[in-house]
Amino acid sequence: MARHVYGVTSAATRLPEVLRGRREAPVRLVAHDDLAAVVSDVDTDARIRRDDLLAHARVLESLVEDATVLPMRFGVIVETDEEVAHNILEPGNSRLTALLHSFNGFVQLTVKAHHDQDQALKHLLRERSDLRVLRDQTGKGPAFYPAQLRLGEAVAAGLEALVSSDAAMLQDQLTGVAERMVLGDISGQNQVLNAALLVQRAARSRTDEAIARLSRTLPDRLRLRYIGPQPPYSFVDGELAGEPVWA
Amino acid sequence: MTVAQRSQNRYLERPAPSSLADVLDVILDKGLVIDIYVRVSLVGIELLTIDARIVIASIDTYLRFAEAVNRLDLTENSEGLPELMEDITRNGAKRKTEGALEAVKDRVTEVFSRDDEDEDEDDYQDEGRPGRTGRRQPEPARKSTSRRRRESEPE
């Protein structure tokens, strides 16, 4: 049995009475000086399932309700508690302590936006007479194939532009809601925005209100998802900028 | 009925816990990492996320857009038009609004559920299997787990 490492927190952190990690294994702390790693036992031979990935996220999410936690990327497995203490917490002590300090009291909230495709298409057609003209030139049958392609290509380009302008509008609206904001990759069709917000735990209800207000004022084509609280995944990454904590 | 029409955004009073599609990018791409301790086959998982990110810009996509646009009725503003409903059914999407997210999630589910089945299988009967690198013989026609089970039993 090895240890799956979820993240690093202060040694003073109190875990919830019952906290289960990957494969329902109890989550515990391995402390060294002022730091503690959040771990659970894991069978290294076990292949990764989707609930392993979810368990990693859920353990961290339940901890950040009350504590500051630096999230580990999924997949860090260490053989023994001693190794956790001496190969991770000890050499990384000053860096980890500094990071914990800088994120003290903060959580990440993620806002994702995507387009309702039909609504987005309707919007495009209403706004763009050139697309309506292209549409009128199409019809059924192979003879209209080139016209269909022309229309489809123009629509695809139009949607892309709409994604950009809606993303810019959302970014604008979200500015000021959070202490910091970083934009992640948008993945897949219809995705418009993937914004990570760094928010003081104490300011969460204010953020909730701001997002609720935003969601009520958006045009029909835009759908929001509001996820969290999470550990500061997107910000830890930025802090480190590829630099290892462990020299 | 304005409330119902806004149902997609209505639940945003509080943030919700993440789904796998929501966290896949962050838990695999972000956070602290110690290379020497990374023990899972991240190669496969990274491929998976990249795969999920691919936006297909192809002739098929163009034709699909053209078709969708041709069906839109601009004179009618309300949602839930019969032809839109028809559209959804025809495209086989559970909910048109969640299309992209569902697609990502579905793919993830698909890939990982294969392992789930394997794992259950292993738990029950495969004590002495080789380590996690020991993927079984390549099996033809990975159609269903039950078939694969049957196929691998004679070994």
Overview of this protein structure:
The complex is a heterodimer of chains A (247) and B (155). By secondary structure, chain A is α+β, with helices and mostly antiparallel strands. Chain A folds into 2 domains: 2-103; 107-231, Alpha-Beta Plaits (2-Layer Sandwich). In chain A, 42% of the residues lie in helices and 24% in strands. Chain A has 8 helices and 9 strands. Chain A has helices at residues 50-63, 81-89, 93-102, 117-127, 129-136, 145-174, 204-217, 233-240; strands at 2-10, 28-32, 35-42, 69-71, 77-78, 106-115, 180-183, 191-200, 222-230. The two termini of chain A are 27 Å apart. By secondary structure, chain B is mainly alpha-helical. Among the domains of chain B are: 15-54 and 95-122, no CATH class; 56-91, no CATH class. Chain B contains 8 helices and no strands. Chain B has helices at residues 2-5, 7-10, 20-29, 42-53, 59-71, 82-91, 99-125, 145-152. The longest helix of chain B is centred in the C-terminal third of the chain and has 27 residues, at 99-125. Classes of the chains: A alpha+beta (247), B mainly alpha (155). At the A-B interface, β1, α1, β5, β6 and α4 of A face α3, α4, α5 and α7 of B.
Q: For this entry, what is the oligomeric state of its chains?
A: heterodimer
Fraction of residues in helix of chain B? 55-70%
In the CATH scheme, the class of the largest domain in chain A would be Alpha Beta
User: Largest contact between protein chains?
Assistant: A-B, 84 and 73 residues
Order of helices and strands of chain B: HHHHHHHH
The poorly predicted ranges of chain A are: none
Corresponding CATH architecture of the largest domain in chain A:
2-Layer Sandwich
> What would the average pLDDT of chain B be, to the nearest integer?
52
Question: What Rg of chain A do the Cα atoms give?
Answer: 23 Å
The value of Rg of chain B in angstroms is 21 Å
Note the overall shape of chain A.
elongated
Largest sheet of chain A: 5 strands, antiparallel
CA-based shape of chain B: extended
N-to-C terminal Cα separation of chain B, in Å? Answer: 61 Å
What is the CATH topology of the largest domain in chain A? Answer: Alpha-Beta Plaits
| Helix-residue proportion of chain A | 40-55%
The count of β-strands of chain B is: 0
